[in-house]
Amino acid sequence: MANNKAAKKRIEIAERNRLRNRTYKSALRTLMKRCFVACDACSQEPGDTARASVSASMNAAFSKIDKAVKVGVLHRNNGAHQKSRLSAAVRKVLEPSN
Question: Thinking of the domain 5-94, which architecture would CATH place it in?
Answer without folding.
Answer: Up-down Bundle (1.20)
